[in-house]
Amino acid sequence: MAYARIDRISEEVKKELSFIIKNDLKDPRLSEIITLVSVKVTKDLKFAKIFVSVLGDEKAKEETLIALKSAAGFIRREIGGRLQLRNAPEFIFEIDNTLDHAMHIEELINGINKTKED
After folding, report:
1. Residues 54-83: pLDDT tens digits?
2. CB-CB contact of 76 with 33 (8 Å)
3. What is the CATH architecture assignment of 2-117?
4. If DSSP states are collapsed to H, E and C, what string results for 71-90?
5. Are 17 and 61 in contact (CB under 8 A)?
6. Per-position pLDDT tens, the chain of length 118
7. Burial class (CB in 10 A: 0-12, 13-18, 19+), 66
8. Which residues touch 87 (CB under 8 Å, ≥6 apart)?
9. How remote is the C-alpha of 34 from its chain's centroid?
10. How far is CA 19 from CA 64, 82, 106, in A?
């Protein structure tokens, strides 16, 4: 039963965080396209690990990560107020490279198929 509560809180944090990043953060270092891949809140609600996917090169990813980390206090205060949590979680932002990895695998498979055809 407790896991269902954590899952619901994770989804609410993801929804509110998406809104905050889109509308409230005005940092020029943020990339134009940021996707929240997943949010994992710990059982004690002390920490929330946020996986983001950023469209762009490595520099854009790093700049976006730096901007999100610098806005973590503001985001924490906003989430705590909007979700009315007693203790708002501390946010840990990480870049999710799953999409890049999947594209690399697809290129390798296409290369193998191309050599078989020749």
Report:
1. 888 889 999 999 999 999 999 999 999 999
2. no
3. 2-Layer Sandwich (3.30)
4. CHHHHHHHHHHHHCCCCCCE
5. no
6. 557 888 999 999 999 999 999 999 988 889 888 999 999 999 988 999 999 998 888 899 999 999 999 999 999 999 999 998 888 899 999 998 887 788 889 998 988 888 877 6
7. middle
8. 45, 46, 80
9. 8
10. 16, 11, 32
Q: Which residue has the tokens 């929804």?
A: 15
Cβ atoms of residues 95 and 31 within 8 Å? no
Amino acid in the structure at residue 70: S
- Sequence spans of domains, the chain: 2-117
DSSP string covering the chain: -HHHHHHHHHHHHHHHHHHHHHHT---TTS-S-EEEEEEEE-TTSSEEEEEEEE-S-HHHHHHHHHHHHHTHHHHHHHHHHHHT-SSPPEEEEEE--HHHHHHHHHHHHHHHHHHHH-
